[in-house]
Amino acid sequence: MNTISNASGLGALTNGLGALEGARISSEKGKFDSLVGEISAGGKKAGEGLSSSQVSEAGRLNGDWTSGFSGAFSSQADKNALPRGAAANQANPNAKPMTIDRTSKLYEKSMEFENYLVKQMLSEMRKTVMKSGNEDNAKKIYEDMLFDEYSTMMTKNAGFGLADQIYLQLSNGGANDNS
Fold it and tell me: Which residues of 42-72 are buried (b: 16+ CB within 10 A; e: fewer)?
């Protein structure tokens, strides 16, 4: 059986979280290998005793293997973080600085929306690149998956601040915006 290796070359993109991601992948691989072993030994039939909650997270489809934003921020400091990027530049210097709970579902969904916009931007940028005449469907699919992961890493680490602005606007912090 092939082994899953840690992509340690992405240290700059993952902001030092490559080891954590590698440990998570190793854990999932171990669970998968034990399940395959049980099925191979005849102890279980495929799909028997396996609930959908063990296969996918809430809000994600089975088979959705892209990295997401669930659990991306989990430290105590992330519960009371300052905005970054464009959201950090408040128009009124006398305004009380607002904080963001990066562990909340609202922030996770704000990150997903920012990711969607970054994905659209990358898609439009890719259209400007000249391609060789040797394009098959498999290459297109895998290249698209690669750029999906690029957009996710950019959203997590680039600090555009759009997700922070969306969070502040939709949370109670944005309710007093007209003062």
Answer: eeeeeeeeeeeeeeeeeeeeeeeeeebbeeb
CA 21 → CA 65, 98, 101, 131, distances in Å? 14, 30, 22, 33
Q: Is the dihedral of CA 5, 155, 115, 148 positive or negative?
A: negative
Q: Which of 111, 119, 116, 89 is nearest to 170 (CA)?
A: 111
Q: Are 167 and 100 in contact (CB under 8 A)?
A: yes
pLDDT tens for 132-169 read 777 788 888 888 888 899 999 998 888 888 998 899 88
DSSP state string for 108-168: HHHHHHHHHHHHHHHHHHHTTS---S---HHHHHHHHHHHHHHHHHHHHHS---HHHHHHH
Measure Cα distances from 174 to 29, 85, 105, 111, 114 in Å.
42, 17, 17, 17, 18
Low-confidence ranges of the chain (pLDDT < 50): 1-8, 177, 179
